[in-house]
Amino acid sequence: MHSFGPPDPALNDVGAVLAQAGEAAMEQARGNSGTLFAVFLGAAAEPSPATTG
Predict the structure, then answer these.
(1) Do the Cβ atoms of 39 and 9 come closer than 8 Å?
(2) DSSP state of 30
């Protein structure tokens, strides 16, 4: 994929990427393990308490 212009900061945000992956995984989850992995991705997208504030 080639794009022109300034880079999208959301593409450099690991939390945003994990959140998007978690949403996509939840939409396509099949069975318990797929759902658990989607929840894991969503949780990994959340900021840690040590980095907030």
Answers:
(1) no
(2) -
What's the pTM value of the predicted model, to 2 decimals? Answer: 0.65
Q: Mean pLDDT over residues 18-36, rounded? A: 92
Alpha-carbon span 3 to 36, nearest angstrom? 34
- On the 0-12 / 13-18 / 19+ scale of CB atoms within 10 A, 23 is middle
In angstroms, the first-to-last Cα distance of the chain is 36
Tokens of 7: 């880079």
CA distance 32 to 38: 10
Report residue 24 CA to chain centroid gap. Answer: 9
Structure tokens at 13: 């945000």
